[in-house]
Design brief:
15 strands, alpha/beta, 6-stranded parallel sheet, 455 residues, 12 helices
């Protein structure tokens, strides 16, 4: 059987035919893959109009927030013409901020691989790295339609994320956004920086005027006391009993114990007690009665020594003064109490004064004195210790009565004038409080507006 040779597949005619078949298949595939819906979407995307932007906000103004401690900038603008009027389709405003850098920025100030950092002009704080880049706008907040003001209040700590440095200029702009997504950009504000103020002008009425009134009262009553005018101070039982207690000790020929407390020399109660000590010592010197002043604090002891010495001198009996009248015991609380209690029981003191700062030892001292049969006068500004003195002592000066006693006994014009000014100032403030309560009950809004405080 004869062999028929197979025609070669690489002949030009076969290759041409094969290429035409491949092209036909490729065209068919591309045609089928493009559906009618996709074609319509493509046409829609190409032909849909962009959202029409609203009218932009105008009049952008940035300035340092007034009456604060710094780190805040206020931004104000005029509302868009489409906000509440015109097309009335504005939904919000977006506030943006960028630092206003000064001078050329060195390329070395940008850390490699992190262009969001750049060394800022920070002469007020020294060299520091900030995350701001000039002309990079940071979004601060979105505020609702109708707003025309935003306060950019930042943190005060340099490590905080919202830190807003003082004395660094920033610029602001506002984007107006409508309900269709259209955005209109405002002009850029002039540079503004934050700084703190020393005086809050909004509080002058509520703080400045009362301070001026109080100072005027103090000066008036001090001058009145210096001129010899008798200033009336309500008598206190504890004060009136001082002379009686000293006289009793003189009659019994037993010593008087004066305890200044455990306070330091800068405590107000200790200072008041030293003033009373001067008056008591002067009376003791006149009666030639023995005085004992055990001290807990070495500094207070030195002041007490000078006070007692001067009192003996004022009484005309400097020769009666002895260095061992005022003496140091210890700075251990209960060791001091044990020593003072031992003195009471051994010497059988006729009168005990406890005036100053006291803590847990108050009841121990007062109970021991009561057991010894002493007449006791106490006073402290520590409210937690007052009940113990009240139950264990004959007379107790409560709180401010201790300070009033120092003025009453010393008759010092400055103390008397200050005391009288405080009383009048309290009366004025009490009257204002009563007027406010009555006004609120009667719904007199003008009183609330007059005394309204804004922080």
């Amino acid at each position: 059987m004869p062999h028929t040779p197979t025609p070669p597949y690489t002949s030009p005619a076969r290759l041409l035919a094969l290429g035409m078949v491949v092209l036909a298949m490729l065209w068919a595939t591309l045609t089928l893959a493009q559906t009618p819906g996709d074609t319509a979407a493509t046409v829609a995307v190409e032909t849909a109009p962009a959202p029409q932007p609203p009218l932009p906000a105008t009049g952008i103004r940035a300035y340092d927030a007034p009456n604060d401690g710094g780190h805040a900038i206020t931004v104000e603008w005029t509302a868009s013409g489409d906000d509440g009027q015109g097309r009335n389709n504005v939904v919000m405003y977006r506030v943006l901020r960028t630092p206003a850098l000064r001078g050329p920025i060195s390329p070395d100030s940008v850390p490699p691989g992190d262009p969001s950092y750049r060394l800022f002009d920070s002469r007020a704080y020294g060299t520091a790295a900030w995350r701001f880049i000039e002309n990079q706008w940071d979004t601060l907040a979105d505020v609702p339609m109708g707003s025309t003001r935003y306060e950019n209040r930042g943190g005060k700590q340099r490590a905080s994320n919202d830190f807003l440095p003082d004395h660094i200029e920033f610029r602001y702009k506002v984007l107006t956004i409508n309900d269709a997504g259209g955005i209109a950009e405002s002009e850029v504000s002039a540079p503004a920086s934050a700084s703190g103020q020393y005086l809050h002008t909004g509080k002058l009425l509520h703080i400045g005027i009362p301070v001026v009134i109080f100072l005027a009262l103090v000066l008036y009553f001090i001058n009145a006391a210096k001129s010899g005018r008798e200033l009336y101070i309500r008598p206190l039982a504890g004060i009136n009993a001082v002379d009686e207690a000293i006289g009793r000790a003189t009659e019994m020929n037993r010593p008087i114990l004066y305890v200044l407390g455990l306070g330091a020399a800068d405590e107000i109660a200790t200072i008041a007690s030293l003033t009373i000590l001067s008056r008591v010592t002067k009376k003791v010197a006149e009666h030639r009665t023995e005085l004992l002043v055990p001290c807990y604090d070495a500094v207070v002891m030195s002041i007490a020594q000078e006070t007692v010495k001067q009192a003996y001198l004022d009484a005309g009996r400097p020769d009666e003064y002895k260095d061992d009248i005022v003496y140091f015991v210890t700075q251990e609380q209960f060791a001091y109490v044990a020593a003072v209690n031992g003195t009471m029981l051994r010497r059988q003191t006729a009168t005990n004064f406890y005036l100053g700062v006291f803590f847990a030892e108050s009841l121990i001292l007062a109970e021991t004195g009561s057991i010894a049969g002493s007449i006791q006068i106490s006073g402290t500004d520590r409210t937690t210790q007052i009940p113990f003195f009240v139950v264990a002592c004959d007379y107790t000066l409560i709180g401010e009565e201790l300070f009033a006693a120092s003025a009453y006994l010393s008759r010092e014009p400055k103390l008397l004038g200050t005391l009288k000014a405080q009383d009048y100032a309290k009366a004025i403030f009490l009257g204002v409080l009563i007027a406010g309560c009555v006004g609120a009950a009667l719904q007199w809004q003008w009183i609330a507006r007059t005394f309204h405080l804004s922080f």
